[in-house]
Design a protein that fits this description.
alpha/beta, binds phosphoenolpyruvate, 8-stranded parallel barrel, 8-stranded mixed beta sheet, single chain, binds magnesium ion
């Protein structure tokens, strides 16, 4: 066997090239090891990168086409690459790869992402020249291979004609909203499970039923006639299965349309807040960012962008992809900087994480594989993004599902660079508008200019999504979960958007516009008045004071919370210390953070919640076992009790902070400068065990006593509050989770979001039981869930007997003002009435009776 020869080592954009002619590895694994050994010997990689290449092969297929394979390592192992390099094994006898493909040129890649795309660009050029590839399989010249990998060549690709396949049936689309993404993906799933080819024809247009994009491109509407046909292995079975899938969805699609119609009827019902008088057409969703705004709507192109498959020479296609990726990376860097300046580092992190996604070598490889198969670059890129995003979304993990949305978002940016025509929907009109979109990704929202976008309405999404949070930060009124009907609104229709009540009123009368403007002026004046008084305590007119805290996770945010009127921090979610970094913070790191919080608060109360990991808050680097129902699994205190390695350093850090930063004469009880709180408590034995551990660690550290409280988030804990109160110093009610568990509604579920109302009478009764149980043992009760920041919710909570409310700083002035304008006696009566109501809507209807001064 010949020794490898390095070529072109000096070109900065070219990786080192090592060629071994006449290789004859025994199998695929031996081939990868041999190529990895070349790269290791040349100093391009550290030896373990070879193992990483083998691991990659286990999870994806690196066969590019025409006998060329491109083994490469996993993204996480990129640090093992010292210098970009290529090791080419020429295997004249061929070697079996995935799916019966035979590989003759094994091009092992050790590269950072930029080099990876450069290599792929060259390979995709080469691959269209089959004669040349044939020669390379047996050439005795290393230079010929090296040259081929650095040169351009081109050959046009072609497409085939379209006709029906052997067996067929005709069907008239009876889905009221046509073939949209949800039913189409079910068709695709069914088709992919069949070995036969299946296609759908509408008129002259034909789509492969295994390809989602192609199906959506048909643009099928209710009433369209289609022919579905199959050919190949078990074609009759395939046709029967696809027929069952297609027709089986009809009832569900009709029911969904019916639900939409009912939602429209409900939307017309009056809401607590501003109501139009002239009954304009109304679309209802969920209020996500408060405020009333008036202007023309602008509908962004649907997420289901139809990307035409226009094959082109691989040379230019690969060049365009390369350029598009580079430009998008630059754009995202600029947007990250801009977001950091406008919204802060945490929000900017959302954008920079997206830039990582387009550096994914699997994604780039897949796009190139599709181009080699003959697809156009825009189509190939979009299809690669969709497939990867589908794979992420299909894993059933909410965190990965969010990554799928991010991937689609950033994928659209690249698509816009490949073909600007595919972005026309994103051009905003010159006049300020209310933006309507299927869903807005965080980067879209962060990039919005509040002078041009005066309101946001999305068909999907939930009130706790990043998009909703960013809209609130930007102060843009927003509504989410408005349903697909939103997308049918015509551009430039004049509308009133109420982000408080989650309503979009179309074509309102002049009288309604004038009334909305007057309401808005009053709201603005009221907000200004509330802000002026934000430093005053939340004391009712009859002299009952409610303690007010901010939900703050890090010391930098304390000054803003105090400025908004917080009297302390009622909830510090410490899991964010773990979620925001790639490793577990040490005891010393945690100590520094808690000490900094105590210093920033200068003696005001701080309630630190120990780690609440699990549910939707998954920490990748902890590698916790995957659970079917993570919200009902090892979460919060349950995890802490199973993982002393996580809990004990945290408790030691907290007690050390108490020892060093809480003065001996500091107040105790609810005014104590530091309290510790345990999340997701279900039972008394859990509390006893946790108390025992806390006491042991406090003794070891030599710290003073620190009040120990528990979160009431599980109905069992609320029902047994009296028993739990015996063993802890205070309660804080997590209404977000208490609502989810009491109503059996996953708090991430967009479909059920309108029903997951924390003011449901069942939740209020649980809160009432909690307050009664606590009172029996003289314990105080706080609420740190979202409803504490809703002025009406805050009034009900105070009436139910809650002593302290903790919320996002932005909500503080409004809640304090509302409580100051109320009488405790009236709030108690109101709370009891609320508990007697039959549903959440009736509770909310009581709001009118409690308007300031009522
Ligand atoms: C809650 O559940 O209301 C709460 C405050 O905890 P989190 O939102 O962090 O789960
Ligand atoms: Mg919770």
């Amino acid at each position: 066997m010949l020794a490898p020869t390095p070529h072109f080592p000096s070109l900065r954009t070219s990786p080192r090239l090592l060629v071994r002619l006449g290789a004859a590895p025994a199998d695929k694994e031996a081939a990868i090891r041999e190529a990895a050994a070349l790269l290791t010997a040349a100093g391009c990689i550290e030896a373990p990168y070879g193992e990483s290449m083998l691991r990659r092969e286990g999870v994806s297929n690196t066969y590019l086409g025409h006998g060329v394979v491109i083994p490469h390592g996993m993204v996480d192992d990129r640090h093992l690459v010292r210098e970009s390099g290529l090791a080419v094994l020429q295997v004249p006898g061929g070697i079996a790869w995935h799916d019966g493909h035979i590989a003759h040129l094994i091009v092992a890649i050790a590269a950072q992402s930029d080099a990876h795309i450069t290599v792929l660009r060259r390979l995709t050029r080469l691959i269209q020249d089959e004669d040349r590839l044939e020669r390379l399989r047996s050439t005795a010249s290393e230079a010929e291979i090296a040259t081929a990998l650095t040169e351009d060549s081109a050959a046009p690709a072609s497409t085939g004609p379209a006709t029906d396949l052997r067996q067929r049936f005709d069907w008239t689309v009876d889905y009221p909203t046509g073939l949209h993404a949800r039913p189409a993906s079910h068709w695709v799933e069914t088709a992919r499970a069949c070995p036969a080819r299946i296609q759908v024809r509408h008129g002259d247009q034909v789509a492969d039923a295994k390809n989602l994009i192609a199906l959506l491109q048909l643009g099928l509407r209710c009433g369209d006639e289609v022919t579905i046909s199959a050919e190949g292995d078990d074609e009759a079975g395939a046709l029967a299965r696809i027929c069952a899938a297609v027709t089986g969805l009809s009832a569900g699609e009709k029911a969904a349309a019916q639900r939409a119609a009912e939602a429209a009827a409900k939307a017309a019902a009056p809401v607590a807040g501003w109501n139009p008088s002239d009954r304009p057409q109304t679309l209802a969703g969920i209020g996500a960012s408060p405020g009333l705004t008036i202007g023309p709507v602008h509908v962004l192109a649907a997420a289901e962008i139809v990307v035409p498959d226009a094959p082109e020479p691989l040379t230019s296609g690969a060049d365009r992809l390369h350029r598009a990726l580079a430009v998008t990376r630059g754009q995202l860097e600029a947007l990250t900087d801009d977001t950091a300046r406008r919204l802060g580092k945490a929000d900017a992190g959302i954008i920079s994480a997206q830039a990582e996604l387009i550096a994914d070598t699997d994604l780039i490889t897949l796009a190139c594989q599709l181009m080699v198969e003959g697809h156009g670059v825009a189509f190939a890129w979009n299809e690669a993004v969709e497939r990867m995003a589908d794979r992420l979304a299909a894993l059933g993990n909410p965190v990965l599902a969010a990554r799928a949305a991010d991937l689609r978002d950033v994928g659209r940016r690249v698509l816009a660079q490949i073909d600007p025509a595919l972005t026309s929907g994103h051009d905003l009109p010159d006049v300020p508008c209310i933006l309507i979109a299927p869903d807005l990704a965080p980067s879209d929202t962060a990039g919005l200019d509040p002078t041009r976008v005066i309101g946001l309405a999305t068909a999907q999404g939930g009130p706790t999504s990043h998009t909703a949070i960013l809209a609130r930060t930007l102060g843009i009124p927003a509504m989410v979960a408005g349903g697909p009907g939103l997308l049918a609104v015509e551009n430039r229709t004049r509308a009133i958007l109420d982000g408080t009540t989650g309503r979009l009123y179309l074509d309102p009368s002049e009288a309604d516009i004038a009334a909305a403007e007057a309401w808005r002026t009053r709201q603005r004046e009221q907000a200004e008045a509330e802000a002026r008084e934000r430093a005053k305590p939340a004391e009712t007119r009859d002299g009952h004071r409610i303690a007010i805290g901010g939900n703050v996770n890090n010391p930098d945010q304390v000054p803003l919370a105090l400025d908004q009127g917080a009297e302390g921090v009622g909830l510090m979610r410490t899991e964010f210390l773990f979620l925001e970094r790639g490793d577990t913070p040490s005891e010393d790191d945690q100590y520094e953070t808690y000490a900094a919080m105590l210093k920033a608060l200068a003696g005001r109360p701080l309630i630190v919640r120990t780690l609440d990991i699990g549910g939707d808050k998954q920490v990748a680097h902890l590698h916790l076992p995957k659970e079917e129902n993570p919200f009902l699994g090892v979460r919060g205190a349950r995890l802490l009790l199973r993982r002393p390695d996580l809990m004990e350093p945290q408790l030691r850090a907290l007690y050390r902070a108490a020892k060093d930063h809480v003065p001996a004469d500091a107040p105790t009880g609810k005014d104590a400068p530091l309290s510790i709180m345990m999340p997701m408590i279900t039972s008394v034995p859990e509390v006893l065990k946790l108390r025992e551990i806390c006491e042991r660690i406090r003794g070891e550290v030599g710290a003073p006593p620190v009040p120990l409280g528990i979160m009431i988030e599980v109905p069992a804990a609320a029902i047994q509050a009296d028993a739990l109160a015996r063993h802890c110093d205070f309660f804080s009610i997590g209404t977000n989770d208490l609502t989810q568990y009491a109503l059996a509604i996953d708090r991430q579920n967009t479909d059920l979001a309108p029903e997951a109302d924390s003011l449901h009478p069942a939740v209020l009764r649980l809160i009432h039981m909690t307050c009664e149980g606590a009172a029996r043992h003289g314990r105080y009760v706080g609420v740190c869930g979202g409803i504490a920041g809703d002025p009406f919710g805050a009034c009900l909570l105070a009436g139910l007997g809650v002593d302290e409310l903790s919320m996002t700083p932005r909500d503080l002035p409004g809640v304090k003002a509302r409580l100051r304008a109320s009488d405790m006696a009236a709030l108690k009566a109101l709370a009891l009435r609320a508990c007697e109501q039959e549903d959440a809507a009736s509770v909310r209807a009581l709001d009118a009776s409690l308007a300031p001064g009522a």
